[in-house]
Design goal:
Helix content of chain A: 25-40%
Low-confidence stretches of chain A: none
Number of strands of chain B: 8
CATH class of one domain in chain A: Alpha Beta
Shape of chain B: globular
CATH topology of the largest domain in chain B: OB fold (Dihydrolipoamide Acetyltransferase, E2P)
Strand order of the largest sheet of chain A: 3-2-4-7-1-8-11-10-9
CATH class of the largest domain in chain B: Mainly Beta
Shape of chain A: globular
Oligomer: heterodimer
Structural class of chain A: alpha/beta
Strand content of chain B: 35-45%
Low-confidence stretches of chain B: none
Helix content of chain B: under 10%
Structural class of chain B: mainly beta
Radius of gyration of chain B: 16 Å
Strand order of the largest sheet of chain B: 6-5-4-7-8
Strand content of chain A: 15-25%
Largest sheet of chain B: 5 strands, antiparallel
Distance between the termini of chain A: 12 Å
Number of helices of chain A: 12
Order of helices and strands of chain B: EEEEHEEEE
Chain lengths: 377, 127
């Protein structure tokens, strides 16, 4: 077991003139302040990666820059699943006794640090360099393929997907740090311009600048204790061409193992933090995990199931779709928001009950899956 | 047939090469020197027959670079080949999931790429 001792999340959006290390530092300083800790209290450091600052030793670079002298430090790369994978590693490190307090930090100027084309091309490299990338795919195109099959098999409609984008925006309106805060309706999503059918502009997360950090420790800290009870992974395949089943990628298997290890079931989950790079990602993950029936997540959103006062509040900061996506820190924002909710500090976004939370992230094209079960002690 | 004699579009030749394990009969697409299912070495490389079924389809409007911007919107599909594996390819915009398709090649963004077209009229029986 481990505890989340503090979290720090920057505003997402445009941070003109600020680099990866700046954004990582801002988030790390905020997480330390939240935990009431000094740099010297940290003995472990886990970093991710930044497409705008490729480096073979990013954790050591950050340790030197930020002023840490850890006895354990390195980077982790699992695409969008990196944030939760880093957190899982920190959990294992403190649980094993290899470290006492681990700083987990991500950040990137993905929006202003490179051109839009460069960002899109860098991300498309998640595809196969020989058998997929030559066809001019993009990440939205890979997910457009998945969405087309999912609609065919499970009866989801574009209107169902649109409900999830509108839900994330309703949440983001309440968060001052969100990249997009102008209210949108499902009709706005349906009317937005096509990107890779059936996905339209508002079915896709933005490219943002931002950073996020958490401190994971062996003992509870100064805040109300929030424990990581279980952490699991499943990796079925890397490439969409090689995926055995475009409706079952491993998310259900990963979360089932995590809940079992935590001695919990889906019925116990009071708060959901689910990866939402695209509306179809969120729909598919909710439905494969079992938090919604197959093809039914849009209807549940329409029915208020995922609202702050609903049965399962979801990504109350606005998710990747509206809080924004800056790479590694993108899904870490889900974790920071979960921490705020579980410590009763989410302000006007506070949900009535967040005693048990299920977090799930994916990297690539639903290629890598990481799940966390967290409990307020 | 030796691996080198099977036409392979990834080498600029008009064909799709598949591989089959002599031990467990697993068939796959991404070329390698061993079976990813059982690990046995020296798989047989053979030419795909070119018949398949559309498994997933998207029309890409937002292209990744200038070469593809000139083609947008373009159809991108996953085709389930009759031999089993799925492959990515280009296709006309109006293909639908379940359509039976046949392999061809088109010069796209400066190189010959697999391009699938419907192998019988719309409304034909799906599998």
């Amino acid at each position: 077991m481990s505890f989340v001792l503090g979290s720090g999340l920057t505003r997402f959006g445009r941070h003109e003139g600020r680099g990866t290390l700046d954004l990582m530092s801002e988030a790390a300083a905020a997480a330390l302040a939240d935990a009431g800790l000094e740099r010297g209290d940290i003995d472990g450091l886990i970093c991710g990666y930044a497409t705008t600052m490729p480096h073979i030793m990013l954790a050591t670079v950050f340790a030197e820059h930020f002023g840490l002298k850890p006895t354990y430090a390195h980077a982790v790369q699992v695409g969008g699943a990196t944030g939760f994978a880093m957190t899982m590693l920190a959990h294992l490190l403190v649980d094993s006794g290899a470290a006492r307090r681990v700083l987990v930090v991500g950040g990137e100027n993905r929006m202003t640090g490179q051109s839009r084309d460069a960002s899109i091309q860098a991300l498309a490299q998640a595809g196969h360099p020989v058998y997929e990338v030559p066809f001019g795919p993009t990440i939205p195109a890979y997910y457009g393929l998945v969405a087309s099959r999912y609609m065919h098999e499970h009866g989801s409609s574009e209107a169902d997907f649109a409900e999830l984008a509108a839900l994330m925006r309703r949440n983001a309106v309440r968060h001052p740090g969100a990249h997009f805060r102008d209210p949108i309706t499902a009709a706005d999503v349906l009317a937005s311009r096509p990107i890779a059918t059936p996905l339209k502009m508002l079915d896709c997360c933005p490219v943002s600048d931002g950073g996020c950090a958490v401190v994971i420790g062996r003992e509870p800290g100064r805040l109300a204790p929030v424990a990581i009870r279980a952490a699991t992974q499943v990796h079925t395949s890397q490439h969409v061409s090689a995926a055995p089943d475009l409706g079952t990628f491993g998310a259900g298997r990963s979360t089932a193992r995590a809940l079992e290890a935590a001695g919990r079931s889906l019925a116990d989950v009071e708060y959901g933090a689910i990866y939402d790079s695209f509306t179809v990602t969120l729909a598919l993950l909710l439905e494969e995990i079992g938090l919604a029936p197959r093809g039914g997540s849009g209807q549940l959103a329409r029915d208020g199931h995922f609202e702050l006062d609903g049965a399962l509040p979801l990504n109350t900061h606005g998710g990747l779709l509206s809080y924004g996506h800056c790479g590694v820190a993108g899904a870490m924002a889900h974790l920071a928001e979960t921490h705020l909710q579980m410590t009763g500090r989410a302000g006007e976004r506070q949900v009535p009950r967040a005693g048990v939370a299920l977090l799930h992230g994916d990297g690539g094209v639903l290629s890598s899956h990481v799940s966390l079960v967290m409990e307020a002690a | 047939m030796t691996a080198a004699s099977v036409p392979d579009w990834t080498r600029g030749e008009p064909g799709v090469a598949l591989q089959r394990c002599a031990g467990c009969a697993h068939v796959w697409y991404f070329r390698r020197g061993f079976c990813p299912a059982c690990g046995r070495e020296a798989p047989e490389t053979f030419a795909a027959g070119g018949q398949g079924t559309v498994h997933a389809a998207t029309l890409v409007h937002r292209a990744p670079d200038d070469a593809y911007r000139a083609l947008a919107p373009y159809g991108l599909v996953l085709v389930e080949l009759d031999e089993g594996p799925r492959m990515m390819a280009h296709a006309p915009a109006d293909l639908a999931i379940g359509d039976r398709v046949v392999l061809g090649f088109r010069e796209i963004a400066g190189r010959p790429l697999p391009y699938f077209q419907r192998s019988r009229p719309p409304g034909g029986a799906d599998r």
